[in-house]
């Protein structure tokens, strides 16, 4: 079983990105599963707090989930043409202490996708993750891209994906990524 961890970078109850993650859970290829990780409960990074008390429990949970996963999918909203601070903050916490980065992130298959009510579907947020993914030593998947633009027309009020073409594109994206994550590392 190929275990993929998905993290939505939004805390919003009706988040399009969380809806995208939950839709993806139902479209995973056979022999794979998409576990939902969360950034909820992660405080703002504070080096003094880290020194005094170590990692907060929500960070420990997410960090362990990332380490155990065969691949990581970041469902990233776009704020001001970059990733949201709350999402970056969560990933920054999971990169502590720096001596753990290679065991948590080294060679980890990763892809970024995202949804936005706007016309560009998080393209710049996705690009803004690239330097982070490089710094953490991950193994990004370059063969597919998924930008869900005009998300208000793609999901219904309950967060169900109603756009069949987008569902097909998401399924294809997931198939390609899982194949990459399950495959040999060299
Ligand atoms: C946004 N939004 C936004 N959208 C976009 O496509 N490009 C952008 O640069 C921005 N900038 C931006 C800044 C801030 C501070 C907020 C709060 C919002 C809109 C954003 O895509 C929208 O709120 C989404 O619904 C956020 O994702 P979730 O919460 O639905 O997953």
Element layout with pairings:
Elements lengths: L1 E7 L7 H10 L6 E6 L9 H7 L3 H12 L2 E5 L9 H10 L6 H5 L3 E7 L7 H6 L1 H6 L3 E2 L6 E2 L2 H4 L9 H19 L4
Parallel strand pairs: 1-2, 1-3, 3-4, 4-5, 4-6
The site of ligand FNR has 14 residues, from helix 1.
Care to describe what's here?
With 186 residues, the protein is of the alpha/beta class. It has a single domain (2-182), classed as Rossmann fold (3-Layer(aba) Sandwich), CATH 3.40.50. It is 42% helix and 16% strand. The chain contains nine helices and six strands, in the order βαβααβααβααββαα. It has helices at 16-25, 47-53, 57-68, 85-94, 101-105, 123-128, 130-135, 151-154, 164-182, and strands at 2-8, 32-37, 71-75, 109-115, 139-140, 147-148. Strands 1, 2, 3, 4, 5 and 6 form a six-stranded parallel sheet that branches. It is globular, with a radius of gyration of 16 Å. It starts with a strand and ends with a helix. The chain binds ligand FNR. Ligand FNR binds next to α1.
Distance between the termini: 20 Å
Mean pLDDT: 97
Largest sheet: 6 strands, parallel
- Find the count of extended strands (DSSP E, 2+ residues): 6
Please work out how many helical segments DSSP would assign: 9
User: Could you name the CATH topology?
Assistant: Rossmann fold
Q: Report strand %.
A: 15-25%
The percent of residues in helical segments reads 40-55%
The CATH class is Alpha Beta
Which architecture per CATH? 3-Layer(aba) Sandwich
| Distinct compounds present | ligand FNR
Tell me the CATH superfamily: Flavodoxin domain
Name the helix and strand elements from N-terminus to C-terminus, one letter apiece.
EHEHHEHHEHHEEHH
């Amino acid at each position: 079983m190929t275990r993929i961890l998905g993290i939505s970078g939004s805390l919003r109850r009706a988040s399009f990105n969380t809806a995208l993650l939950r839709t993806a859970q139902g479209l995973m290829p056979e022999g794979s599963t998409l576990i939902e990780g969360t950034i909820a409960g992660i405080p703002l990074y504070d080096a003094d707090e880290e020194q005094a008390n170590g990692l907060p429990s929500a960070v420990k949970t997410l960090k362990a989930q990332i380490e155990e996963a065969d691949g990581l999918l970041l469902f990233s909203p776009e704020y001001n043409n970059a990733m949201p601070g709350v999402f970056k903050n969560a990933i920054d916490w999971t990169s502590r202490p720096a001596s753990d980065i290679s065991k948590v992130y080294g060679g980890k298959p990763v892809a970024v996708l995202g949804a936005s009510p706007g016309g560009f579907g998080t393209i710049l947020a996705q690009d803004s993750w690239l330097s982070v993914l490089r710094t953490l030593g991950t193994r990004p998947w370059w063969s597919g891209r998924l930008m869900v633009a005009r998300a208000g027309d793609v999901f219904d009020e309950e967060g169900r994906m109603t756009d069949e073409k987008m569902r097909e594109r998401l399924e294809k994206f997931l198939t390609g990524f899982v194949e990459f994550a399950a495959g040999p590392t060299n």
